[in-house]
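Preliminary data (for renewal application), 2-acetamido-2-deoxy-beta-D-glucopyranose complex.
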Amino acid sequence: MLSISTILTYLQLLLLLTTTCAALPPIGPRRAPADDLPPNPRDRVFRPDEALSGRAEAARRPGYVRMPVSRHLFNGTGKWSWGWHWGGGPGPGGPKGSSGGRPGGSSSSAGAAPTVPAVGIREAVPGTEVGKGMELSAEDRRWGWSYLTDIGGIAYIIELEIGTPPQLIKVFIDTGSYELWVNPRCNTSASLEICKNHGNYYPNRSNSSMYVGGDFAVTYGTGAVKGSYWSDVMSVSMFRIPSVQFAVANDSNYTFSGILGLGYAYPYSINYPSILNLMVSQNMISAPIFSVGLGGDGDNFSEIIFGGVNRWKFAGYLEPIPIWPPISQQDPAWIQYWINVTSVGVTKPYASNGEVYTSETFTMPCLIDTGSTLSYIRPDLVAVIGEKFNATVDNAGNYIVDCSWRDKPGTVDFGFNRGRMLINVRYKDFIFQQYPGHCMLGVQPADAGSTNYVLGDTFIRGAYLVFDQQSDVIWMNQYYNCGDQVVSVGQTARDTQYIKGAC
Ligand SMILES: *[C@@H]1O[C@H](CO)[C@@H](O)[C@H](O)[C@H]1NC(C)=O
Ligand SMILES: *[C@@H]1O[C@H](CO)[C@@H](O)[C@H](O)[C@H]1NC(C)=O
Ligand SMILES: *[C@@H]1O[C@H](CO)[C@@H](O)[C@H](O)[C@H]1NC(C)=O
Ligand SMILES: *[C@@H]1O[C@H](CO)[C@@H](O)[C@H](O)[C@H]1NC(C)=O
Ligand SMILES: *[C@@H]1O[C@H](CO)[C@@H](O)[C@H](O)[C@H]1NC(C)=O
Ligand SMILES: *[C@@H]1O[C@H](CO)[C@@H](O)[C@H](O)[C@H]1NC(C)=O
Ligand SMILES: *[C@@H]1O[C@H](CO)[C@@H](O)[C@H](O)[C@H]1NC(C)=O
Ligand SMILES: *[C@@H]1O[C@H](CO)[C@@H](O)[C@H](O)[C@H]1NC(C)=O
Ligand SMILES: *[C@@H]1O[C@H](CO)[C@@H](O)[C@H](O)[C@H]1NC(C)=O
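Predicted structure:
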């Protein structure tokens, strides 16, 4: 039996995470203006079947662990939405963390959003629809039940093998939370079919499972989970991690697969090592760093690389965007990937220059969250963007747009580090098609008065992102897909800056 004290010996093996923070990073190379970029190489889109011979490749090249990510579109069920991730304020906010895992006993961790001065939208919008839908109670809006009727969403999922013999489990990758849990209760999930396909883990069918105990409880914006902790062997890609602690749920609502939280974990929010921590302590990777390339909608290629960067998914160098507020100033029980957005705009089809809707001094701290189908930003800014797409606001306050926009060659543009990095998200990647003929703007208004802004998948599809818990930055550049070569990173702090994208 594995006891708590056995687990603690694993803690001692851990390399401690670097907590030095983040003065503004050295200035990275300036990104070329949009029209100097190499053309988005649609004609040389890298084919997935060429790609993930990755298992064999990872074996030859230690230092990173690479995993394919699959994309699942699911329909709304009338009373549920994964996409409405979380709202602000007290009450059911984002993942509240587990009571069992946290050091220091910090019990209330609503994961407070940074406060932002209200500055800088350039254009006032006549006849703006902001506020429509606001007649709903705050609680309903936060939970998104009556608010985002029938939205459905897109889930990005990886496969893990747990136990001896291995049991195949599929889990969401979620940079907005920090623990791994498995076994959603399917008959109260959003989708019985999807849930049943995602595998269940039975501790009693594994020779290596060990009961750890403790109470696990998380409240997400769109669901809740309870359970207790177990530990078992886990395989990620072809690597084997001997003793991974995770939660096995015995009750959950509105979730249809387990979730792999990839936020800051040990020693902040939990007192046991996360998978990322264990990969470091087992010398599978050099530092707690992982890259996410969700890729364009319809490209059929998404991947996550622990400890490595795929050079053939961007051009030029990656820009370091500091996590802000610095992690030393965030609630230690729930440190999150907040970064400042410094401009927002739209490049219309065939236009040579993008329009920018924000002022020179604009900042908007946003959580980068792979677990959120849509993005949630300032309502006034959503209204400005909505007008460009001739959006209509439905009774629930959603910005609905014509699906034909997805086929037009424009982009929605998010700037970072004051002009040093601009991510141009193609309309096709930005506009979420729930089902044929029903499309929504990729940004929706955050709760009135809330500063819990989120950049979800409708932003992330346009970017190549490297989440770096060693240096507390998110490295970023425009996503391209022009080939395939992974290099490991994290041997020295900030060595990601030297990796030149090959596209
Ligand atoms: C998704 O839901 C909408 C509205 O309820 C329905 O019209 C559509 O047929 C559904 N699509 C699928 C693929 O189930
Ligand atoms: C982020 O924006 C805030 C203002 O909202 C500013 O005080 C802070 O310095 C910015 N952080 C970085 C790293 O740019
Ligand atoms: C697991 O244990 C059972 C019963 O002890 C044994 O029959 C089986 O071979 C073991 N399986 C593995 C993969 O070790
Ligand atoms: C769901 O299944 C559990 C056991 O698997 C059962 O206890 C519960 O009553 C079921 N709930 C519904 C709503 O069917
Ligand atoms: C294993 O556990 C599951 C669920 O807890 C139970 O339904 C099943 O009967 C158990 N199997 C064995 C062999 O004990
Ligand atoms: C799920 O919903 C049921 C019914 O509302 C509730 O009794 C149960 O506590 C909920 N489960 C969780 C994990 O919140
Ligand atoms: C889940 O397990 C806990 C103990 O770990 C127990 O108190 C609770 O009743 C269980 N809930 C369900 C729905 O089985
Ligand atoms: C992606 O897959 C879909 C359906 O399987 C297919 O229609 C489409 O052509 C694929 N796209 C690419 C770029 O391979
Ligand atoms: C905008 O929408 C209105 C009403 O839906 C429609 O009459 C108008 O033609 C649309 N304009 C454009 C440019 O698509």
